[in-house]
Write a structure and sequence with these properties.
Chain lengths: ~300, ~170
C-alpha cells in the first residue's frame, strides 16, 4: 500500500514536472526522481535505467553532439566545401590567415574546440566564406578582395568564428536526424557497433553533412543567426584591439562588389546594408586607420590576392 | 493507518539530495579536446606546462573569469585550463585503444569515440570516393605557436587577449 502510494506520488511528480520544464531540466529531474524511487524500492534498478535512458533520448539537443562528434562532422563538411571550391595553396597567404585567425579565436567566447581553429583560402572569385563545425574556416579570394585592411580581414574571420562559437552549423542539421543519431546511440550499451549500426549511423551522418553544406552553400542561415555572428565578431574584434568598424567598411565594399541575384554571399546572406544597420549601434565610430606595421603585413600577405 | 509520503515530502527529498551532492564532493571535470593545454597563468600566452589528453580527469581548485585552476592527480600537474576545453561529463575511454567505449548509458557520460567517429568517417569516405580529405588534413596541420601569436599582437599594436573569451 505504502509502496503503491509512493510510486503514485513519484509518477505524479515526474509527470507534473515534465509538463513545464525544459528538456535538460527534465532529464535532471527524472534522474533524481528515479534514484529516489529506486532507493524507496518503488522501481527496480533496471526500470530506473530504462526510464533514464528514454528520458535522456528525448532530452537530447544539438548540445549533445560532443565536441569530438562536432569535429568529425566539421571535417566532412570542410571536405565537401574544399572539393566544390578549389583551395588556393599559397603558403604565405594561408600562413597569415591562420596567424590572424588563431589570434582572434583565442579571444572569442569559445577559444578551444576538439581539433582547434584552422583557416584556408579558396581559389574562387565568388564573394564567400564558410565555417564548418568545430573550427574549419574557408574564405574565398573574392571575399578577401573586399578587405582593404587587416582589420577588415579580422572582421570576416571573427564573424565566421562567431558561427562556430554559437554552433550554428550543428543547428542546421534537421531535428529528425539529430533524434535519429542520438537514438541509435541511446539504445546502444557498452558494446561496439556492428555493421548494421555503423551503416545506419553513416547514413545519418551523410544526411547531416548534406543538411549543413546545403545551408552554408545554398540557403544561408537566418538573419538572426547572422546578427548573432556579427555581435560575436564585434566583441572578439574589440578584445584584440581591432576596430569593429572594419566590419562595416568591409560590408560597404562587399555591397559595391556583390552582383544582385549572384550565387554567393548575395544569395546566402542578408544584404550588407541591412547588416550595417544592425551592427551600427554596437560598433561605435572609431576612425579606421590602422598602424603602418599592421597594414604593411596585410599588404604583403594579401595585397595581390 | 500511517500516512504515506506526500508529494511535498518527495519534493523536499529531491531537493535535499540534489544540494547535498552538489556541496560535498570535489568538483571533477574532463578534458573534452584532443590536446588539453595546461598553462602557468590564466592567459593564452601563458607558458604551457603540460598537455592532457582527451578524457583525462581534473579536479577544479578555483577559477578566474573563463579559466579553471585544475589539478590532474597522478600526473603531478597543477595549472590553468580554459573552460571551453573542459566538460562536466565523464568521458570514458576504452583501455589501451584510441577508440572509446561508454561504460554506461546516461547523461553524465559523454559518448567518447561513439557516434560520429573515425569509423563513420571511413565509411563515409568509402561511399563518397570523389570527396578528397587531403586538404582538410593539411589544414589541421596549420598551427601557430603561442610565441608567434604574442609577436603578431605586439608588432601589430594589438592587445594581448587577457583571459580569452567570456
Amino acid at each position: 500500500m505504502k509502496t503503491f502510494r509512493g510510486a503514485t506520488a513519484i509518477a505524479f511528480l515526474l509527470a507534473g514536472l515534465a509538463g513545464w520544464s525544459g528538456c535538460a531540466a527534465m532529464e535532471q529531474v527524472s534522474k533524481v526522481g528515479t534514484s529516489v524511487a529506486q532507493s524507496a524500492g518503488v522501481v527496480t534498478g533496471e526500470q530506473a535505467k530504462s526510464i533514464n535512458r528514454s528520458t535522456a533520448a528525448i532530452a537530447k539537443t544539438q548540445e549533445d553532439f560532443t565536441p569530438e562528434q562536432e569535429y568529425y562532422i566539421g571535417r566532412s563538411v570542410g571536405a565537401v566545401i574544399v572539393n566544390r571550391y578549389k583551395p588556393y595553396p599559397d603558403p604565405q597567404a594561408n600562413g597569415y590567415l591562420n596567424l590572424l585567425g588563431q589570434t582572434l579565436a583565442q579571444a572569442s567566447d569559445r577559444p578551444e574546440t576538439f581539433g582547434g581553429y584552422h583557416f584556408l583560402i579558396l581559389d574562387s572569385d565568388e564573394i564567400n566564406a564558410f565555417a564548418a563545425p568545430g573550427g574549419l574556416i574557408f574564405v574565398s579570394r573574392g571575399m578577401l578582395r573586399c578587405c582593404k585592411s587587416e582589420d577588415a580581414v579580422a572582421a570576416v574571420l571573427a564573424h565566421e568564428i562567431g558561427h562556430i562559437q554559437l554552433r550554428h552549423g550543428i543547428q542546421s542539421i534537421e531535428k529528425s536526424r539529430q533524434t535519429q543519431a542520438l537514438t541509435i546511440l541511446a539504445t546502444e550499451g557498452a558494446k561496439n557497433f556492428g555493421g548494421k549500426e555503423l551503416s545506419d549511423l553513416t547514413k545519418t551522418f551523410e544526411g547531416s553533412i548534406n543538411d549543413i553544406t546545403s545551408t552554408l552553400i545554398n540557403n544561408g542561415y537566418s538573419r538572426s543567426f547572422e546578427q548573432q555572428a556579427d555581435v560575436a565578431a564585434v566583441n572578439t574584434l574589440s578584445r584584440v584591439g581591432y576596430n569593429p568598424n572594419a566590419l562595416v567598411a568591409m560590408l560597404r565594399e562587399m555591397e559595391k562588389r556583390l552582383k544582385p541575384g549572384g550565387l554567393d554571399f548575395a544569395k546566402t546572406h542578408p544584404s550588407p546594408g541591412s547588416r550595417i544597420k544592425d551592427i551600427g549601434s554596437i560598433s561605435g565610430s572609431a576612425p579606421l586607420a590602422e598602424p603602418l606595421a599592421r597594414h604593411e603585413r596585410f599588404r604583403k600577405a594579401l595585397g595581390s590576392i | 493507518m500511517k500516512r504515506p509520503y506526500s508529494a511535498s515530502t518527495v519534493f523536499l527529498l529531491v531537493f535535499l539530495t540534489a544540494s547535498a551532492t552538489a556541496g560535498d564532493a570535489a568538483k571533477m571535470m574532463s578534458v573534452q579536446v584532443r590536446q588539453g593545454e595546461v598553462r602557468a597563468t590564466p592567459y593564452f600566452l601563458g607558458k604551457i606546462i603540460a598537455t592532457l589528453s582527451y578524457g583525462d580527469r581534473v579536479e577544479v581548485l578555483g577559477s578566474k573569469e573563463a579559466w579553471f585552476r585544475v589539478s590532474a592527480r597522478g600526473k603531478g600537474v597543477t595549472g590553468w585550463m580554459h573552460s571551453s576545453a573542459l566538460s562536466e561529463k565523464r568521458i570514458v575511454l576504452k583501455a589501451g585503444g584510441r577508440d572509446a567505449e561508454v561504460a554506461a548509458s546516461g547523461g553524465e557520460l559523454a559518448l567518447a569515440g561513439k557516434g560520429f567517429n573515425a569509423d563513420v568517417e571511413a565509411e563515409f569516405k568509402a561511399r563518397n570516393r570523389n570527396i578528397d580529405f587531403s586538404w582538410i588534413d593539411r589544414m589541421q596541420a596549420m598551427n601557430v605557436p603561442p610565441e608567434r601569436i604574442a609577436a603578431f599582437l605586439r608588432e601589430g599594436g594589438l592587445l594581448p587577449a587577457q583571459g580569452g573569451g567570456k
